[in-house]
């Protein structure tokens, strides 16, 4: 059996006694105790504690533990003709290990990069790019970096046509007829843009000078000495950040103000739509977040609405959120994605997971904060409604996993050469959210939990941590609630696959939706003619539904209702009159919707109902969106009913997708 060393146990007792004697503690007083190296988690979890904390990141080939990066300077040039970014990166480094033998080599990550020259303190140095190792790339080995403890390392490089970090669009592929390029580096693609310590455990301040014939945006604040006439754009990121947060885009970008500290950038043809969609809410979100956590530390908060092929909903590049044009719904209904990316300014960007095993610390926390922001503005029922949709997404995601045993645990184990892109799922988002939501509730509600939020983000600001450090901080902060914390089934929450325990959600905004969906399912099994349906249902049924309620309505239909006795043998394909008349009655709010979430759920319903004449509409739509949230399940749905159409559609559009999206759809279709 595993036993703690006596000293450790002793420590716990003394600590708890003293805390109890002091009675109610302020967060500041609690802080004093945080350095005490006790191990107070339940035994089953203590047994899993890694030897060193934060845990070592296995998704890098660099020897990042041996150096500190004091600063990183990027000097880049964008060539649309060559579809390449070239230039140099200058790292100011400091050896952490004074023992020269250990640091006689410096290892960095690269992936499909052309490394041309290396200099240490201005003198040429020998280097070698090792053979590629999937999925991590090729280690760059620099021998004898320097005899000094602090030194400058300059690497000249160029991206290649196998680069996974960038998508290049030629002038025919954009609506405005100008070429475009954007980066997407999370989780491990920074190494394909520039040689680096590509781990969320290493943070650095950045300066960047980027030359391009078209306007450039970057994950930092534009410097005064930019010389746009000479096509040189300069930026600064004063907060230390990991490499995966760097974001670069260049194209025909116009901009408009959307708040006192916010600007939106996008291609000119959608500028007014973007301004309208975001203008009202961004500053409200920032202020709501500041109240929950603490002041926004980054200065400006801008948004880049990328081209259609942008593969994610959003990416939290600091100062410059990158987002998909599918957020433009013309009714501000997808704005929660902005609340999410903004929330990353604290969770993820300030306080970062130390490796992708603990990705839930980035995304679960961010979903939690996103919903707190939405709740602060629209009320608790709206927060709970969003959580409910998330719960159903989580169910869908785990159900459709090829290997749920492996990929549905909250804490991941990517130490087996798994590509973080392959482990990506809804689980860290929604299981992570549910754990925090559960903790909020068992610890006594928001009033009790909120001081912990502030404490946690202050304590780990500008650092990277693992799940154990999160747990330690929780236990340290709530000494008087140790009993409650010990009663949490941590083993299940953190390490067991499958759904977590279901919390109680306020269903005020969902009840009408569920009732209507259940009624349709009942009637679809009973009624025959269009007239019969029309006497039961009308457009008024959904008149007051917002887009999120429409999404839940359509989703509940495909899940055969919400009631506990779901009809097992009911199949929409056997009720073609019902499904057709449903879409006809509700056409104004569903079929004509401009909200991509609603449109996608409608296609899903049509596929479930086997409305063959609509398959072509989904196929065409897949040529207009690049966001993987829609593209991947879209192809899977199409493939489930008409494989030749799915394959022909993919063949037609594959070169318009982002390289990561293209690879994953290919995999999904078994090609
Ligand atoms: N950081 C993620 C996007 C990401 C994660 C890119 C992992 C690459 C690897 C971003 O913050 C995100 O979660 N985006 C979501 C938004 C949603 C949850 C509101 C998305 O893209 O759908
Ligand atoms: Zn996120």
Automatic annotation (TrEMBL):
The record, for InterPro entries, names: Aminopeptidase_N-like_N, Aminopeptidase_N-like_N_sf, ARM-type_fold, LTA4H, LTA4H_cat, M1_LTA-4_hydro/amino_C_sf, M1_LTA4H, Peptidase_M1
The enzyme's main class, written as a single word, is hydrolase
Q: Which cofactor does it need?
A: Zn(2+)
- Asked if the keyword tRNA-binding belongs to this entry, the reply reads no
CDD domains hit by this protein: M1_LTA4H
Q: Which chemical reaction does it catalyze? A: an epoxide + H2O = an ethanediol
Q: Which residues form the Peptidase M1 leukotriene A4 hydrolase/aminopeptidase C-terminal domain?
A: 508-669
Protein EC: 3.3.2.10, 3.4.11.-
Q: Which domain of life is it from?
A: Eukaryota
Gene3D superfamilies according to UniProt: 3.30.2010.30, Neutral Protease Domain 2, Peptidase M1, leukotriene A4 hydrolase/aminopeptidase C-terminal domain, tricorn interacting facor f3 domain
Q: Where in the cell is it found?
A: Cytoplasm
Task: Give a Pfam family name.
Answer: Leuk-A4-hydro_C
Q: Which UniProt keywords apply?
A: Cytoplasm, Hydrolase, Metal-binding, Metalloprotease, Protease, Zinc
Cofactor annotation remark: Binds 1 zinc ion per subunit.
* Entry similarity comment: Belongs to the peptidase M1 family.
Q: What does this protein do?
A: Aminopeptidase that preferentially cleaves di- and tripeptides. Also has low epoxide hydrolase activity (in vitro). Can hydrolyze the epoxide leukotriene LTA(4) but it forms preferentially 5,6-dihydroxy-7,9,11,14-eicosatetraenoic acid rather than the cytokine leukotriene B(4) as the product compared to the homologous mammalian enzyme (in vitro).
Specify the protein name: Leukotriene A(4) hydrolase
Upper lineage is:
Eukaryota, Fungi, Dikarya, Ascomycota, Saccharomycotina
Tell me the gene name.
Answer: U6500N02700
